[in-house]
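FORM 7B: Structural annotation worksheet

SECTION A. Query
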Amino acid sequence: MEAPSIYPPENFKLFKQTYQYVAPVNISLSLLVLLYNALVISYFYQNCRKLTPLLFFLIALSDVITAVGHIVFDSAALGLAECGESTKNYDSIMMFCFVVYRVLALGGNSCSVFLNVLLAVLRTEKVVAPFRRTNMVLVKVAGVMWGLLLMTLTLGDCIIIGYLGWESVLSFKL
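SECTION B. Predicted structure
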């Protein structure tokens, strides 16, 4: 069974015009995000035994994963836009990069959002009740439940991508 084309020939011109301008900007911004978050990680790395520095460290790590996903997808899309649709394994390369983007960039973004919300709730709790201790069991349960939900959604996305053309991902060759 032939996998459907991600970018049919009639849409390739629009794809090429879009990624010639968008991808370099996204790659530049992603490189800046990598640089800034590397500074945050190096600052909070020493004091990860406390909850707040650990959350800042994990947020920065999630943002790094998101930036890597954007760099992979945008650089592949830019390279394919420059080479043309006659590139060997064009659809399989785009499908592979889309799976990588989905797992890394959107998964990292989801983790970052969750950790930011958790940090906001914990900081609010400290403002409202400054002498109350944080129940670490509840924090760990929330983290495990969010991780399971995120893995389930990512697996579901990969299954849907597979339904649309997983054979092209598995047959990826340069």
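SECTION C. Observations
Residues 2 and 132 are 61 Å apart (CA to CA). The two ends are 21 Å apart (CA to CA).

SECTION D. Sign-off
Analyst initials: ____
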